[in-house]
């Protein structure tokens, strides 16, 4: 508040004169401007934080409140139609992805189409791919080939870029051994089960050439979410 009032009352003081503490109009205007500017900057900062970390907070809160998601059951899983192309396409559609190339992680409610053959060493190429979905690393294999498949998402060089790229793998850290991962590829469905979870250096590229003689799905994301400090690796083995 502005100081107001008179600090001297005539006839009650031995000294004469009055001092009015009411500020001048220019001072008032300057104060109002600075106060509005400060409030605006604080508001912008709060909105920026919400915009940046909102997806992470939402995923964490949803998981905290509702726990692991339930898998969409395939009514044809035990019938002779389980491998039918139309049924595979319909199942993928119920998850909200296509059967051409996509990944679904039922436990954490993650789902995304996959962009194939993305150069993991070309920052412009993979950042463009991550705006549209999860990236499949060029040079690694595809489901059904009996080799390692490498998928990555949420690679960002700045917290400000968090919402620019997909949030598919934000909750990847919630996965444990035995959790199921589905990959649809060329109108077929492949099931993988988590066997290992690793935190590694951001410079560790050894996983791109992983080979243990089995068909293995490797998924990578940044850790902690919204940073570029380390990498979280999920290793999952295919169930025949």
Structural class: alpha+beta
> Overall 3D geometry?
elongated
Provide the gyration radius in Å.
29 Å
The CATH superfamily of the largest domain is identified as Sortase
Q: Which segments are poorly predicted (pLDDT under 50) over 5 or more consecutive residues?
A: none
Structural domain count: 2
Q: Helix count, per DSSP?
A: 3
Just give the CATH class of the largest domain.
Mainly Beta
Instruction: List the secondary-structure elements in sequence, H or E.
Output: HHEEHEEEEEE
CATH fold call of the largest domain: Sortase, Chain: A
Specify the CATH architecture of the largest domain.
Beta Barrel
Helix content: 25-40%
Q: Summary?
A:
With 240 residues, this protein is α+β, with helices and mostly antiparallel strands.
Question: Key terms for this structure?
Answer:
single chain; eight-stranded mixed beta barrel; Sortase, Chain: A; 3 helices; alpha+beta; 2 domains; 240 residues
Please, could you describe this protein's structure?
The chain has helices at residues 25-66, 85-95, 123-130; strands spanning 101-105, 110-118, 134-137, 148-152, 180-185, 188-201, 216-223, 230-239. It has three helices and eight strands. It has two domains: 1-9 and 16-67; 71-239, Sortase, Chain: A. With 240 residues, it is of the alpha+beta class. The protein has an eight-stranded mixed β-barrel with strand order 1-2-3-4-7-8-6-5.
């Amino acid at each position: 508040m502005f100081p107001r009032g008179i600090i001297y009352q005539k006839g009650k003081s031995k000294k004469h004169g009055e001092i009015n503490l009411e500020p001048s109009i220019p001072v008032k205007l300057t104060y109002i401007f600075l106060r509005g500017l400060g409030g605006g900057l604080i508001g912008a900062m709060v909105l920026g934080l919400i915009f940046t970390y909102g997806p992470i907070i939402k995923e964490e809160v949803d998981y905290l409140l509702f726990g692991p998601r339930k898998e969409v059951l395939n009514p044809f899983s035990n019938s002779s139609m389980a491998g039918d192309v139309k049924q595979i396409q319909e199942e993928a559609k119920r998850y909200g992805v296509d059967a051409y190339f996509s990944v679904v992680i039922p436990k954490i409610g993650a789902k995304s189409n996959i962009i194939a053959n993305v150069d993991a060493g070309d920052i412009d190429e993979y950042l463009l791919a991550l705006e549209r979905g999860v990236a499949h690393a060029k040079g690694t294999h595809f489901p059904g080939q009996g080799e390692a498949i490498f998928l990555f998402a949420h690679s960002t060089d700045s917290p400000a870029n968090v919402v620019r790229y997909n949030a598919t793998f934000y909750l990847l850290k919630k996965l444990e051994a035995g959790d199921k991962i589905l990959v649809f590829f060329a109108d077929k469905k492949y099931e993988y089960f988590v066997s290992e979870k690793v935190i590694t250096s951001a410079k560790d590229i050894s996983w791109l050439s992983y080979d243990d003689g089995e068909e293995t799905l490797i998924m990578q994301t940044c850790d902690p979410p919204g940073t570029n400090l380390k990498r979280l690796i999920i290793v999952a083995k295919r169930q025949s």
